Amino acid sequence: MGPGRVIGIARRDGPGERVIVADYAAVPADLTLAGATIVNCVGTDRGSPETLQHLNVEVPRAWARAAREQGARQFVQLSSFSVYGRAERVSCATQAAPQGIYGRSKLAAEKALTAERGELALSVLRVPILVSPSGTSGAPDKLAQLAALAKRLHTVPQPHRPVERSMLTYDGLAAAVERVIAGAPSLACAADPEPFTYALLAGAARERGLQVLSVPVPAIASKLLSKAAPALHDRLLASSLLAAEDNILAGESDFVRLREVIVSHFV
Question: What CATH number does residue 100 fall under?
Answer without folding.
Answer: 3.40.50.720
